[in-house]
Design the sequence.
C-alpha cells in the first residue's frame, strides 16, 4: 500500500480563498483585518518566517505591519510596543516572533498581548480556553493538523492518537484538540520508554519532536494516518520532517509530506485566527 498524501499547499490554497472572501466581506463593512508581526533581532530563520507571514496576509487581502527591532531592544520597550498594539484598533492580531533575545522574558511578553488579539494562541488565557473547551485562539500548527484530518473526513471518535512531543506550541495543544474530538490520546516524549509499542497501537500519529527519523515504517500500524510537524535538514541539506517519509508511506493510509504538508497550514491558520479576531472585534 502507498499512502495518500495530505497536501498542505492545496488545502491552504482552499482555506486562504475562503479567508480572502471573508476579509472582503468585512472590508465592505469598513473593517480591514490587521496583523502586527513583531521581530526582535536578526535570527535568519525568524526573518524568513515573518516575511512569509506578512506576504501571506497581503495575498489574502489582510492588512499587516512588520515591526523590526534591534536585538538590543529592552524588555520594557517591547512591552510598551505590545501595549500600543493592544490599543490600536487597526490591529486585530499580534504575533511576537519567537525566539526572543535571552534578556527578554518571552512568557512575560506573551502574557502582555491582549487575549482578544492572541492569534498565536500562546497566552495562558488561550491555553486555558483550549483546555476547557471555551472559545479562544488555538495555536496555529496543531490547529492546521486538525484541519488536515478534517480534510480527509477522518472521524477521531474512539480512535487512538499518539502525539510524539510535548511542547507548549504543538504537542500539548495537539493532544487537547484530539481529545476534544473524542480520540484516546497518548503523549509521548523524550523520556518515553518503548515508543514503538505505543505507536504500533496508534490510528493517528503526530510527530512533533524536531528530530529526523523519529518515526520509521516498523513503528506504524498498517493504515494509520501520519502527520509530520518536523522541520529538519537531512545530510544533503534538504528539508525533511521527523518521519522517515519513504518508509512510512508504504505502511500508512495517509501521510503529510515535508515540505508542503503541515508547514503551509501553520501560516494559513494564522490568517484564519486573524480574520476571526477581526470578525469578533467587528461584532
Ligand atoms: N517561532 C517559530 N514558530 C513560531 C510561531 O508559530 N509563532 C511565533 N510567534 N514564533 C514562532
Sequence:
Amino acid at each position: 500500500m502507498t499512502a495518500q498524501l495530505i497536501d498542505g499547499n492545496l488545502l491552504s490554497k482552499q482555506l486562504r480563498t475562503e479567508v480572502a472572501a471573508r476579509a472582503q466581506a468585512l472590508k465592505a463593512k469598513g473593517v480591514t483585518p490587521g496583523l502586527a508581526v513583531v521581530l526582535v533581532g536578526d535570527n535568519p530563520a525568524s526573518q524568513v518566517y515573518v516575511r512569509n507571514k506578512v506576504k501571506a496576509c497581503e495575498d489574502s487581502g489582510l492588512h499587516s505591519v512588520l515591526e523590526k527591532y534591534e536585538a538590543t531592544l529592552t524588555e520594557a520597550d517591547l512591552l510598551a510596543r505590545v501595549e500600543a498594539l493592544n490599543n490600536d484598533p487597526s490591529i486585530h492580531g499580534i504575533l511576537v516572533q519567537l525566539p526572543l533575545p535571552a534578556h527578554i522574558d518571552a512568557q512575560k511578553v506573551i502574557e502582555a498581548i491582549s487575549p482578544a488579539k492572541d492569534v498565536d494562541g500562546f497566552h495562558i488565557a488561550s491555553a486555558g480556553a483550549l483546555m476547557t473547551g471555551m472559545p479562544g485562539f488555538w495555536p496555529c500548527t496543531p490547529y492546521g493538523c486538525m484541519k488536515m484530518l478534517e480534510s480527509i473526513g477522518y472521524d477521531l471518535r474512539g480512535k487512538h492518537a499518539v502525539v510524539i512531543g510535548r511542547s507548549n506550541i504543538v504537542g500539548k495543544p495537539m493532544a487537547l484538540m484530539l481529545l476534544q474530538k473524542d480520540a484516546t490520546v497518548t503523549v509521548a516524549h523524550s523520556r518515553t520508554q518503548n515508543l514503538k509499542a505505543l505507536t504500533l497501537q496508534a490510528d493517528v500519529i503526530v510527530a512533533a519532536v524536531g528530530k529526523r527519523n523519529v518515526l520509521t515504517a516498523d513503528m506504524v500500524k498498517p493504515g494509520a494516518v501520519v502527520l509530520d510537524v518536523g522541520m529538519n535538514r537531512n545530510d544533503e541539506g534538504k528539508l525533511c520532517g521527523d518521519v522517515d517519509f519513504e518508509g512510512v508511506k508504504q505502511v500508512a493510509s495517509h501521510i503529510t509530506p515535508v515540505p508542503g504538508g503541515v508547514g503551509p497550514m501553520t501560516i494559513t491558520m494564522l490568517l484564519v485566527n486573524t480574520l476571526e479576531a477581526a470578525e469578533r472585534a467587528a461584532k
